Amino acid sequence: MASAFRSLFTASSRLSSQKFVSGEGVASVEELKAKLLPQTQTAFKKAAPQEPNESSTNATAATTGKVSESSNATAKSAAPKTVAPESGSHSLDKILKLDLVKDLDAESIGKIWIQKHLDQEDTISAVVPADTYKKMLSRSKEYPMFLLPLTHGDGVEFYLMQFAFHQVIFTSLLEYQTHRENARPFLTLTHYPELIDKGVVLMHGMVSTDPRMLTVDQAQVLTFGLQQYYVSDHKEKLQLLQDFHKRPEKFSHERLIELTEISG
């Protein structure tokens, strides 16, 4: 993961009244926002989409998927266009042979994508409807970070999540409190919009194993939590997201736990 985002994500803490674990860390949402939000907004601007490079004129090359979205794109082959997910991740054509799937429908592409990752350890994958992803991406520009609770033993831990254009990075709040700029990402979700014209965005999630702090099941729960706040129109959940960014004094950790499906 790009170093520019490492300092923005970190490990979890137990809920204690309405405050986070103190000490080296932060004591409230207000303090957390004061420390992180300016950095978050700067990082998001740095990850703004750029014009993709034109693909090679050799349509038979192994990576024929890259097609520029510039005015010259129409002169290229009919291979699907690819846009790198930014934040240091590879484009989809490095993972999937786009020239072999360009004529398939969304359902067939989805089956291939899920099957491809079925036996891979420490990964999750999903096929996201294009309209769903557009909604999530749009909301993330206004609310680029959030907290999600996750059950841990007999308690609850908070995980900090941050959007970096087509990536979402998770770490525990405790990790941030402990390591600050050296905080490690525990889960990274990468979305690939190259096939969005077919109505789907492909998602790949990688659970960090150095060291392992999350199980695959927990990673799936956090991913579902992301959907609950960035895709759903649930009135109270949207209010919590807005409060976290705009009215931190009204943000309720207890209500966050009550509303979020957090069991893994």
UniProtKB/TrEMBL annotation:
<dbReference type="Pfam" id="PF06644">
    <property type="entry name" value="ATP11"/>
</dbReference>
<feature type="region of interest" description="Disordered">
    <location>
        <begin position="1"/>
        <end position="22"/>
    </location>
</feature>
<feature type="region of interest" description="Disordered">
    <location>
        <begin position="43"/>
        <end position="88"/>
    </location>
</feature>
<dbReference type="InterPro" id="IPR010591">
    <property type="entry name" value="ATP11"/>
</dbReference>
<protein>
    <recommendedName>
        <fullName>ATP synthase mitochondrial F1 complex assembly factor 1</fullName>
    </recommendedName>
</protein>
<dbReference type="GO" id="GO:0005739">
    <property type="term" value="C:mitochondrion"/>
</dbReference>
<keyword id="KW-0496">Mitochondrion</keyword>
<comment type="similarity">
    <text>Belongs to the ATP11 family.</text>
</comment>
<feature type="compositionally biased region" description="Polar residues">
    <location>
        <begin position="65"/>
        <end position="75"/>
    </location>
</feature>
<dbReference type="GO" id="GO:0033615">
    <property type="term" value="P:mitochondrial proton-transporting ATP synthase complex assembly"/>
</dbReference>
<feature type="compositionally biased region" description="Polar residues">
    <location>
        <begin position="9"/>
        <end position="20"/>
    </location>
</feature>
<keyword id="KW-0809">Transit peptide</keyword>
